[in-house]
């Protein structure tokens, strides 16, 4: 696993970032929301700090993956700060606050490596949008999911628009119209999370994904992340051609040859 761990400050007390040197090579970033007493709810500046942490990590050429989680075992991100939202003086300030959720989500999606959401409890509102923006999601069985905005007189916006791609239009409509929560089993059933485990197994399940990523070809992982985002906006025909070009770009270095040769040698030695 790790050889050296380094603590880096992203410039906000609610968000901490740890960079871990991996014995397999490269580094992994761990971003944690630290507002456990309030179920890791985030004011606008906290959501912006997630974006800043993601962008700071993204500058590291040796970065292999990022894990995003909440402190404690009660919440991933319990949503935006309701007290702050109730005091917005006008529409412009409300829009500016919402824009910080988008900034966090967009920074996750623009990160050049996979971002894993380690969901350890309540994942509500802005928290569910942030989780939606991650590449992979693993949740503990005690997690709860919901989009309660309509109960506060607000529509679900920003990256809630990505949810139908994960769980379909019908389930998305149920969540955004009713504001009701669903449990982790239902979220897993509808495809919002890819892996569901007991709370005690959450770290091991997350690490299994991280290890798989860091032992893969680092350039291939970055090309795949880029290609995944291209697929979202391209026709099937264009996406196929983009994939062909990505394979060609991979062969601009010796990474495919090295990894393929290593695989052949392992197979030969069995």
UniProtKB/TrEMBL annotation:
PROSITE patterns in the cross-refs: ENOYL_COA_HYDRATASE
Record's keyword annotation contains Disulfide bond: no
GO molecular function: enoyl-CoA hydratase activity
Keyword Lyase: yes
InterPro entries linked to this entry: ClpP/crotonase-like_dom_sf (IPR029045), Enoyl-CoA_hyd/isom_CS (IPR018376), Enoyl-CoA_hydra/iso (IPR001753)
GO biological process: fatty acid beta-oxidation
Documented EC number(s): 4.2.1.17
Domain of life from the UniProt record: Bacteria
Gene3D superfamilies per the UniProt record, alphabetical: 2-enoyl-CoA Hydratase, Chain A, domain 1
Keywords of the record: Lyase
Family in the record: Belongs to the enoyl-CoA hydratase/isomerase family.
Protein's UniProt name: Putative enoyl-CoA hydratase echA8
Organism whose genome encodes this protein: Terricaulis silvestris
Top-level taxonomy: Bacteria, Pseudomonadati, Pseudomonadota, Alphaproteobacteria, Caulobacterales
């Amino acid at each position: 696993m790790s050889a050296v761990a380094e603590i880096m400050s992203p410039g906000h007390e609610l968000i901490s970032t740890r960079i871990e040197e991996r014995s397999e090579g490269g580094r992994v970033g761990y971003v944690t929301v630290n507002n456990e007493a309030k179920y890791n709810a985030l004011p606008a500046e906290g959501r912006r700090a997630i974006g800043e942490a993601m962008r700071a990590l993204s500058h590291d050429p040796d970065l292999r993956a990022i894990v995003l989680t909440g402190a404690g075992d009660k919440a991933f991100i319990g949503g935006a700060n309701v007290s702050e939202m109730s005091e917005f003086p006008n529409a412009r300030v409300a829009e500016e606050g919402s824009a910080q959720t988008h900034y966090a989500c967009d920074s996750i999606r623009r990160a050049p490596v996979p971002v894993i959401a380690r969901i350890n409890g309540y994942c509500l509102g802005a928290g569910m949008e942030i989780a939606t923006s991650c590449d992979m999601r693993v949740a503990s069985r005690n997690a709860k999911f919901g989009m309660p905005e309509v109960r506060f007189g607000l529509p679900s916006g920003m990256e809630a628009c990505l949810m139908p791609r994960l769980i379909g239009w019908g389930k998305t409509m149920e969540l955004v119209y009713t504001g009701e929560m669903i449990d982790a089993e239902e979220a897993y059933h509808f495809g919002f999370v890819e892996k569901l485990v007991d709370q005690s197994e959450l770290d091991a399940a997350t690490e299994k994904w991280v290890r798989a990523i860091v032992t893969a070809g680092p350039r291939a992982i970055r090309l795949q992340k880029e290609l995944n985002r291209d697929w979202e906006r391209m026709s099937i025909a264009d996406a196929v051609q983009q994939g062909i070009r990505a394979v060609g770009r991979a062969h601009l270095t010796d990474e495919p040859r090295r990894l393929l040769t290593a695989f052949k040698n392992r197979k030969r030695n069995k």
